Amino acid sequence: MSKTIENANFEDTGYSYTLSLISGKYKPIILYCLMEYEPVRFNEMQRYLKKISDKTLSQNLKELQADDLIERHVYPQIPPKVEYSLTERGHSLVKVLDQLCEWGIQNRK
To answer: Is the pLDDT reported for residue 85 higher than 80?
Structure first.
C-alpha cells in the first residue's frame, strides 16, 4: 500500500515534534554551544551568541529547560554562579546536530 497525502498531517510527525523543540533563531545555537563547551555560564553564552539580549537568552534557556534538553545548575555562593549543560535527552540530539554540521561542511559553497 502506498502512502497518500490525503490523511497525512505534518504536525503528527516526529520531524515536526523535533522542530518544535529546537526551532527558532537561537535554540540550535545554544544547543550547539553546550554540545561543544558544556558547562557554560550565562555570560559566556551571551558572548558566544554575540547580539542577543538578556531577556531573549533567558527565555530560550527557560524553554529548553522546560523541554528537558538542558539543565541549570545553581551553585550556593556569592556572587551566584549558574551553569547550563545538556541533559541526557539533550545529549541524544548531539547526533542530529553533528549531522547538520557535517552537511554544512560538505555542502558549503
So the answer is: yes
**CA–CA separation, 22 and 67 (whole Å):** 10
pTM of the model: 0.84
Instruction: Identify the burial level of 90 via C-beta atoms within 10 angstroms of its C-beta, where 0-12 means exposed, 13-18 middle and 19 or more buried.
Output: buried
- Measured between alpha carbons, how far is 73 from 61 in angstroms, rounded to an integer? 12
Which residues contact residue 104 at a Cβ distance below 8 angstroms, ignoring those fewer than 6 apart?
Answer: none
Rounded Cα distance, 92 and 21, in Å:
13
Torsion sign across C-alpha atoms 17, 63, 28, 99: negative
- For residue 7, give every residue at least 6 positions away whose Cβ sits within 8 Å of its Cβ, in sequence order, or none: none
